[in-house]
Design a protein that fits this description.
Distance between the termini: 33 Å
Strand order of the largest sheet: 8-10-11-12-13-7-14
Order of helices and strands: EHEEEHEHEEEHEHEEEEEE
Structural class: alpha+beta
Bound molecules: coenzyme A
């Protein structure tokens, strides 16, 4: 018999093991956080066979942040897949969120059918771009490594970008920015966040990136966030990375409000892929059109 319930501290190792197998990653019991996350597991006897959690996020809709459940780590042990367990656990997790007053949720799906059955639909795009570093213009602004005191400036810089769009999400817990949102250990190597300052010393733009081995003694500068509140500072952070062997992956996340700035990259910066910003839609029914800013309280 399968039972769905919140886990206890004693289940940390089992939760880590289910996640590690599902996502092909190293995971330690002490990395399984319970603080500020709503976790549910499905148990076969005492064994954890299915996991999922949600974290408090805000989703930007119409210039305001709406409370949003950020769903993560949905995983089922291989031998228990195909029996409706993920659907059942997610259904229970979303019902609990809704009961707690959180009307929308968002996730990055690895599988669209499962989430469509639960009422999600694609609701936005997070485009990625690649360009050779050598083709990016030199810095036009001073860049410095982010200091601890800059974190609030970085968050407000992102919020300023996000408020101008429908759909971006961000954790409401400030403590999650450095270990989760910005480039962090577990993503490539040499994770760094650099900032560019405005006239008052405020953070006017930032880039958070890590290095990715390409397997041929080269590496890519993989930029996770690139946020600039004015166009001229956009390429400034690239100053330390000259050289034809190091192409750069630049996500399109960081455009300022309004039209795209003219960043004069010489050769074409080609989109590399698109990932969605899905959200839970208002009620079961036909696939909605492009309007998706509708909570379902
Ligand atoms: C994705 C995953 C969580 C699904 O778990 P599951 O318990 O087998 O899923 P369910 O049995 O509840 O499936 C519900 C629906 O999702 C769809 N689905 C499930 N697995 C699927 C797969 N591998 N490919 C395509 N569709 C799939 C099916 O439409 C299914 O509906 P059906 O019963 O009408 O066929 C599980 O395969 C897994 O742990 N994968 C590895 C980790 C992962 O990718 N997690 C998702 C991160 S977003």
């Amino acid at each position: 018999m399968i039972e769905i319930r919140p886990p206890t501290d004693a289940d940390r190792a089992a939760i880590a093991a289910v996640g590690a197998l599902a996502f092909n990653m190293e995971a330690r019991a002490d990395q399984v956080a319970f603080d500020n996350r709503r976790r549910l597991c499905a148990y076969a006897g005492e064994g954890v066979v299915d996991i999922a959690h949600s974290s408090p996020f805000g989703q930007w809709l119409g210039g305001k942040q709406v409370p949003c459940a950020g769903i993560g780590a949905v995983a089922v042990l291989p031998e228990y897949r195909g029996q409706g367990l993920a659907r059942a656990l997610m259904g229970e997790l979303l019902a609990r969120e809704r009961h707690a007053g959180v009307a929308v949720s968002a996730l990055y799906p690895a599988n669209s059918e499962l989430y469509r059955q639960l009422g999600y639909e694609y609701a936005g795009l997070h485009p990625g771009f690649r360009a050779p570093v050598a083709d990016v213009p030199p810095a036009r602004a001073d860049v410095s490594e982010m200091a601890g005191a800059d974190l609030d400036g970085v968050i407000s810089c992102f919020s300023c970008f996000a408020a101008a769009h429908n759909g971006p999400v961000q954790p409401t817990d400030r403590a999650r920015w450095e270990p989760d949102v910005l480039a962090h250990a577990g993503e490539g190597t040499h994770q760094r966040t650099v900032v560019v300052r405005g006239p008052e010393g405020e953070v006017a733009g930032y880039a958070s990136y890590f290095l990715e081995n390409t397997g041929d003694n080269g590496y890519r500068v993989a930029c996770k966030h690139l946020v600039a509140l004015s166009a001229p500072i956009t390429p400034g952070w690239l100053k330390p990375w000259p050289g034809p062997r190091n192409p750069v992956a630049v996500p399109g996340l960081g455009r300022p409000p309004g039209p795209w700035p003219a960043v004069p990259i010489k050769t074409g910066a080609l989109p590399t892929g698109l990932t969605g910003w899905p959200k839970r839609r208002a009620a079961p029914g036909p696939k909605p059109g492009p309007t998706w800013a509708r909570p379902h309280l």
